[in-house]
């Protein structure tokens, strides 16, 4: 027994490094491998996004505790300390509180108590942490200050403590992104000192915002001495001459993303070629919001250039002059487009009889946000938007999006069109036929020459939907026209359809898997009939986000207090579909008192972490 104990103790001393002449192999790890290990200990230290402190927070993680663990790892030996310091000071974020149970204990200790005030006044921890960081960086600006490239601070801290923030920025020459107060973007005189520090010290800044009132500072970029390495530029309510803006953009040789919000001076001419002006830069991400003078013609002229056609990956059109009928002219020119958003309020029904309209198609598109809603002045009983979603469904059946994985629509009945189900009849309508211009019937009644619907028969109306008699025997068409059921979309991968009605809290998700076919060995079907099925475990869901912190592709699709509705479509073996409850739908949600929601929160295919990332 004693010999065994001595053997174990000798082995521990030999490998643990605590005995004489001990050898610890983990102390001899290569520096790149050690950096990767430390990156897993403190994940937020690798955050290189151009998003604010609030938007870049890591869920289900306490950033302060992770930073503490990394600091403790740096105290093991001198070699680990050198590696840990480089990781800690690469991307710094200051959080006001711990995102764990430790905050309950620490908040009580921080209170300034007295004999007459037992509750105490809580300490401003964010300001204290910024003060300590500023002191540390200014004590060793050559070694520590040069390591900092990203600095993120909470909103209230950067708005109220500008002097401390300016003193910190003054010793950060390699800074690429920093959270700045909004007054600085509007040339507010109260933030003049901070602006001078940023302009003088931070030559490598990569993102900047200009709001209404800062036109003079924006024009100063033409000199090429202020932030020449900008990659992301955001303009909000800017009133500037378009020709001057063309010169400003031409100076920024590294510009990759541009966002223009609420501008009446930006029109199609800024995108068109002009021999007297420099060309509009080739961007990877272009976001236009509240620019009614920009139409599909101007964007088509911009995408006619070979360099822009190959570079543009993200395009967002929110309340612009681009109409859904002319969207295909824009999509046809963007051969590398991966994410597209169009958000419009329409005053008239979809006009498909005036001229031939090409279906939407793009081979590289992965995420499509198609939110067409009726304006406040439109008649709510005309079903004005149905024609627009019918047009989208026709394009999907036509196979124009072979790479599409996520679709966002503002129509709760849109998944029924994709599943081949008839549109729901209104309870007050009786046997009255819905108008063809405002319903989805047109998708299934087009001929083979121009029809993209699933059941085109060469000219006449679809026999399946030719009668509103609920007792009529439907005629089914399989995926290959074999009469087994309604034909389905030819999907290459799982398609996630996010739906939302008029109420922002009433929204959900329908996931459609590729059907079983000889050419697809991994598809999921129901009864071998080639129908799409709701999958419970497939590829992980990724929330559509901008790589430059600008795009709002998923904006408005957040979790509400009422949860979200998940639709489950399963075949019943007789050519129809059966609605079944979700697995685990009866369990209470986290934080509840045992009561279940009427519509449980849907589970992501990527697990709990991916679910919270999408539905937060």
Key features?
alpha/beta, 18 helices, disordered C terminus, eleven-stranded mixed beta sheet, 26% helix, 616 residues, 12% strand
Briefly characterize the structure:
With 616 residues, the chain is of the alpha/beta class. The protein is 26% helix and 12% strand. Strand 15 and strand 16 form a beta hairpin.
What does this structure look like?
It contains 18 helices and 16 strands. With 616 residues, the chain is an alpha/beta fold. The protein has a domain at 42-179. The strands form three sheets. It has an eleven-stranded mixed β-sheet with strand order 4-5-6-7-8-9-10-11-12-13-14. Helix 15 links the parallel strand 8 (314-318) and strand 9 (339-346). Residues 1-20, 426-486, 516-545, 558-575 and 577-616 have low confidence and may be disordered.
Radius of gyration, in Å, reads 29 Å
Low-confidence stretches: 1-20, 426-486, 516-545, 558-575, 577-616
Helical content class: 25-40%
In what order do the strands lie side by side in the largest sheet?
4-5-6-7-8-9-10-11-12-13-14
Overall average residue pLDDT: 74
Q: Give the N-terminus to C-terminus distance in angstroms.
A: 57 Å
Number of strands: 16
Largest sheet: 11 strands, mixed
Q: Any idea what the shape is? A: globular
SS content category: alpha/beta
Structure annotation, total helices: 18
Protein name: F-box domain-containing protein
Region (Disordered): 521-616
Organism: Pseudomassariella vexata
InterPro entries: LRR_dom_sf
